[in-house]
Amino acid sequence: MLSQLCIYTDVWQMNRHVGFVPAFFNSFVYASVRGQHDRRKLIGMQLDAQRAVAKAGSSTAAEKSQSAEAAEHQDLCTGKVIMVLGKTDRAVFSGELELDAKAVLGPANLEVKVFNAGHEVPVMQAEEIVDFVWEGREAAQ
Known about the structure:
Elements: H1 2-16, H2 20-30, H3 37-56, H4 61-73, E1 81-86, H5 94-105, E2 110-115, H6 121-124, H7 126-140
Parallel strand pairs: 1-2
């Protein structure tokens, strides 16, 4: 049943979203999916630095506000990379990806949620994902 729904979802996207197929293929051609450990380590380093500044504490409210604005501008306002994975995904192996991401970003810089779903996780569990991401954002503020 679920596999039929996934196929239906893909067909629906291909038939109704003119940009789906080009975007899908361009993600393989242009996306930096492989060999990006050095670039991703920079994100971990930025998050570590952000955490160190927060631990040291700002002396004034203005400094705290400025620090929060800088983090927001850099899209690091949650203080972590939030990763959503599907437990039964046959394209992205959640266990392997989580280990790799922790090694590159640092365990303190990663929040992972594995849903009981496959590669279709963003389509099938959109509401739960939004709740998870929103809760992480609210907890960081």
